[in-house]
Amino acid sequence: MPGNYLLRPKRSPQHRYAYIGVPHDAATSLGNPGARFAPQALREALRGVFDWRLQDGQLADIDRGVIDLSGVEVADWGDIALSYHDTEQCVAETYQTVRDALKAGHFPLVVGGDHGITFPCVKALHDTCQGPIGLIQLDAHCDLLDYSDRQGRYSGSSGVRRSLELERLTGSNVVQIGLRGYATVEQYQMGQHLGVHRISAARLADMGAQAAAEQALSCLQVGHKHASGNGVQAIYLTIDLDALNPGEAPGTGWPEPGGLTSQQLLELVRLLAPHVAAVDIAELNPVYDSRARTTTILAARLLLDCITARL
Q1: Are 283 and 39 a contacting pair, CB within 8 Å?
Q2: What is the predicted pLDDT for the residue at 225?
Q3: Which CATH class is domain 4-309?
Q4: Diameter of the chain by CA atoms?
Q5: Helical H segments across the chain, by residue range
Q6: CA distance 148 to 145
Q7: Please, what is the angle between helix 118-127 and helix 87-103, to 10°?
Q8: How far apart are the C-alpha atoms of 306 and 309, rounded to whole Å?
Q9: What residues does 284 pair with on adjacent strands?
Q10: pTM for the full model?
Q11: Which residues contact 44 (CB under 8 A, 6 or more apart)?
Q12: What does the alpha-carbon distance between residue 26 and residue 154 come to, in Å, rounded to a whole number?
């Protein structure tokens, strides 16, 4: 367990988080490379939020009032030392670190890297639970590619497909929110065949973030706050920043036209976070971010909202 902290508790910690960097974009062959720099960029942004806004372990949320973080620990587990020459070995190394964090009683805050980071993290949650698990994916893309000569089996396009090969994750326990644009026929039909629930960006614009979050949790039969209810034992939340409109979040690997607003994404994360057991942020690309670090700062806000919504 590391000795570094992004946030040290002022009293006995009741909520323990592990910030885990996965600086991997070696499998990125279609989008913009550079997501490997995200863990450090986001680490600095999140540390800045804690340094500048916290006073005596408290901060004020404009909508919710004063929030007490004095019992929250955010340990910095550093960036995983990855074997970049071997993508499958990188998957194994990521899996082991996230599993170690879960077994130590920490809530993983995993920061990629391309979206290929999600499968080993979902597998780690799967292997530390006994019952069925659920997956909520905030993303512009299906990520249901099986294999291609260019990307192989483990890439940002195949994380959900690999996750659905796990014994206790079924298509009916996967909810994809924010999909838009055009996909390959293979990925589109695979999602239909497996019974994956889809709430497109266009549909979310009509129904609103709250209704979308409620529907997602209903699909997974989540009964009440802080419980992963009747249907699944635990839920994994993955946030691909290309779910956002690239006009608001340019720092991503594959800027897809259209998309969620930052406010919609913030609301979704706040509503979903109390019900999940681990979260990742993928496809933050500081190389393509604005000079004001718009996307990076938004990603830091998402992690902070995940923490405060779970109190």
Answers
A1: no
A2: 45
A3: alpha beta
A4: 54
A5: 38-53, 87-103, 118-127, 159-163, 185-194, 201-207, 209-219, 262-272, 294-309
A6: 8
A7: 40
A8: 5
A9: 252
A10: 0.96
A11: none
A12: 10
Phi, psi of 57 (to 5 degrees): 80, 10
The rounded distance, in Å, linking the Cα atoms of 83 and 118 is 17
Rounded average pLDDT over 68-77:
98
Residues 249 and 247: their CA atoms lie apart, in Å, by: 6
Handedness of CA 254, 258, 263, 264 (dihedral sign): negative
Domain parsing of the chain, residue ranges: 4-309
Residues 144-180 as b/e (b if ≥16 CB within 10 A, e otherwise) read bbeeeeebbbbbbbbbbbbbbebebbbbbbbbbbbbb
Tokens of 32: 């913009």
| CA distance linking residue 72 with residue 147, whole number of Å | 41
Question: What is d(CA 228, CA 302) in angstroms, rounded to the nearest whole number?
Answer: 21
Separate counts of helices (H) and strands (E) for the chain: 9, 11
Residues 6+ apart with CB under 8 A from 51: none
Q: pLDDT tens, 16-56? A: 999 999 999 976 667 789 999 999 999 999 999 999 999 99
Beta-strand relationship, 15-22 and 107-112 = parallel
In this model, does residue 2 exceed pLDDT 50? yes
